[in-house]
Amino acid sequence: MHVSHLTLHDFRSYADLDVALEPGPVAFIGRNGQGKTNLVEAIDYLSRLSSHRVASDAPLVRAGASQAIIRAAVVRDGRSATLEIEINPGKSNRARINRSQLPRARELLGLVRTVVFAPDDLTLVKGDPSDRRKFLDDLLVLRHPRIAGVRSDYDRVLRQRNSLLKTAGLARGSSREGAIATLSVWDEHLARVGAELLAARLRLVADLAPYVGKAYATVARGAGREDAAIAYKASLPSLAEDGAPADTGLMEVAWLEARLLDEVERRRKDELDRGVSLVGPHRDELLLTLGNGDLRLPVKGYASHGESWSFALALKLASYDLLRAEGDDPILILDDVFAELDSGRREQLADLVAGAEQVLITAAVADDVPAALAGARYSVGEGVVTRES
C-alpha cells in the first residue's frame, strides 16, 4: 500500500497543493514552520480521521477558510482508489471514494493505514494513562475499524452517566431516588459497551506484547540489557483475580459485562459521593516495564531518556509489525524523528524500516536522513513542494 498522489485544499498552510509521490522512502526537507509536517499529517488523517498533532479539527482548516479537503490516490495490490475527506469544523465531515460520497465519514477507516513516529511519542512512556489508552484505541481502530463506533458509544455513555452521577449526588428525597433508578439503565449501557471495548483491548495487548519485546531488543541493541514488556491493568479487580475466559468470542464479552456490572454496584456509594464513573475502560492503564526475571520496574520514572525513547519507538514498531502480519504494509511516517535520536538509534531505526512499502519522512536538514532511507526527496518552503532531481 502506498499513496501515489496527494491533493490539499485549504488544509493547514496550503491553499492548493498537488504533488505526485512514489513508493519507498519519500523525504520532505525544509526549515521548521514551512509546512512539511502538514503533508504527512494530511495522509495520517485519512487513516485515523484525526490528527496526531491536535485534538480538534479546527486548526486543520487554513485561516479564513470554512473547510479543508484532503484527497489522495492510494495504490493497494496494484489497484488505485481516490480517497477524499472534507473537514468541516463544528459540522459533520464528509468522505468520498472515487468521487462517490459515503453515508458516514467513519466508513473511510481501514482503507489506508498509517503508523506515525513523532517527537510527541515520548508521552507514550512519560505521559498520563490517557495517552497510552489512546495509543491502544487508535491501533484497535486501524485493526478493526468498527471499534471506532464502540469507542464513540462508550464516550457518549460515559458523559451521560457522569452527568447523572453529579445530579444524583446532589439530589435529595424522591429526586435522588429517581436519578438513581435512571442511573441503573446507564449502568447497563456502560457495562455492555465497556465490555466490548475492554475485550478488544485485552486481545490487542496479548497480540502486541511479543512484538514489543522483539522491537525493543532490536532498537536498543548494544545498550539493551533488559527486556521490555507490556501488560493491561484493568480497573476491574475480578479480572486480575480470576482472569478472563480463554475464548475470545461473545462469552468473554458477556463475562466482562457481568463483572463490570458487579463492580459498578459495589462502587455505587463512592461514585455518587465523587460524581464520576470509577469503573470501566476509561480508568485502565497500559503497564510498560523493563527488567529481567522477577525484577521488573515501570519505565515511567525509572528508565533513562534513551531507554524511554527506545520503548516509545518499540511500541510504534510493534504496531507496524502487527498490522503488517495481518495484511497490507501500513504507510510509515517518520515526522521529525531523526533529529531527536542519537546517531546509533538513527541508523538502527532506518535499517528497521527501510524495507517498508512506503516511508514518509520529514526533516529540517537533509543530512539527518540516513543513507538507508535514500529515495525521493522534496524541498518544502513558502507553501511550495518541489521534487528534487
Describe this structure in words.
With 389 residues, the chain is α/β, with parallel strands linked by helices. The chain has helices at 36-48, 123-126, 129-143, 147-170, 173-219, 237-242, 250-266, 268-274, 299-302, 305-326, 343-353; strands spanning 2-11, 14-20, 24-29, 68-76, 79-87, 94-97, 100-101, 114-117, 227-233, 285-292, 295-298, 331-335, 358-363, 376-381, 384-387. The strands form three sheets. A six-stranded antiparallel sheet has the order 2-1-4-5-6-7, with helices on one face. Strands 8-12-13-3-14-15 form a six-stranded mixed sheet, sandwiched between helices. Strands 9-10-11 form a three-stranded antiparallel sheet. Strand 14 and strand 15 (384-387) form a beta hairpin. Helix 4 (147-170) packs across helix 8 (268-274) and helix 5 (173-219) packs across helix 10. The longest helix is centred in the middle third of the chain and has 47 residues, at 173-219. It starts with a strand and ends with a strand.
